[in-house]
Design goal:
Mean pLDDT: 92
CATH superfamily: Vaccinia Virus protein VP39
Number of strands: 7
Strand content: 15-25%
CATH architecture: 3-Layer(aba) Sandwich
Number of domains: 1
Radius of gyration: 17 Å
Helix content: 40-55%
Largest sheet: 7 strands, mixed
Length: 248
């Protein structure tokens, strides 16, 4: 078992407890699902989810797009089983940092916090992603922003908290640097920066060792702060980015 797969299997239960409660779900619908739904072409008939986890986002997207054919992928067999149970769709157990091939081609690939887990070999990962898309297909990704003003603290946290993170296999991404690296294969159609520090307390309280029982007391005020935060200029105040790339 790879280091990354072993880590994901070990944190699976507490991660999904913290990220599927009503406050986390509300936050993800507003700041992740709705942007994905807006960016996904109306003509798209099939998508593949990258590092799809337990299928919560897939289920919510399927509710909005009932005719959409969805397929999941995850490095964790446990997450893949949960995905299939939650969505009723197939989930392939794959490691994007290793070459693999699927016979299907998709209109879009969607990754919610996926690609920053592929940093052990981004070249192989993007070759795999490109191979999953039809010509002109889109890649929609929501990833932690490496240009965030609190990034030095986040990097230190990843290095020190070995129970919940593996610094050699995950790190935040700079959209500009990522696009420059992979511009021969993709062009950027749009990028939006989102998320205040509040996102950490709503979606990552498990890693901050904040009990679930505390979340009802602070989630609503922090979500209000997060909405106001969106009016700040530049990319530096924002925790993550939402980007849509098109396969050349």
């Amino acid at each position: 078992m790879s280091v990354q797969r072993e880590l994901f299997e070990s944190i699976h239960d507490k991660y999904y407890e913290a990220t599927t409660d009503r406050f986390a779900t509300e936050y993800k619908i507003e700041h992740i699902l709705e942007p994905i739904d807006r960016l996904l072409d109306r003509s798209a008939q099939s998508i593949i989810e990258l590092a799809s986890g337990d299928g919560q986002m897939g289920r919510l997207l399927k509710q909005r797009r009932p005719g959409l054919r969805m397929v999941g992928t995850d490095i964790s067999e446990k997450a893949a089983r949960d995905y299939e149970r939650t969505t009723g769709s197939r989930c392939h157990v794959v490691d994007f940092t290793k070459p693999f091939h699927l016979d299907e081609r998709f209109d879009a690939a969607v990754g919610c916090g996926a690609i920053h887990h592929f940093v052990a070999d981004l070249d192989v990962a993007f070759t795999n992603i490109r191979g999953l898309l039809r010509p002109g297909g889109s890649l929609i990704m929501i990833e932690p922003n490496a240009d965030y003003f609190l990034q030095p603290l986040r990097s230190l946290w990843y290095r020190l908290d070995r129970k919940n993170f593996e610094a050699s296999t995950e790190r935040a991404l700079s959209h500009g640097a990522l696009l420059e690296r992979f511009s021969p294969d993709f062009r950027c159609e749009s990028v939006l920066y989102k998320g205040s520090p509040a996102a950490l307390f709503i979606l990552h309280n498990w890693a901050l060792r904040i009990p679930q029982s505390w979340k009802p007391f602070y989630a609503r005020p922090l979500m209000a702060i997060d909405r106001a935060w969106q009016f700040l200029p530049t990319k530096y105040p924002f925790n993550f980015f939402v980007a849509k790339w098109i396969k050349r």
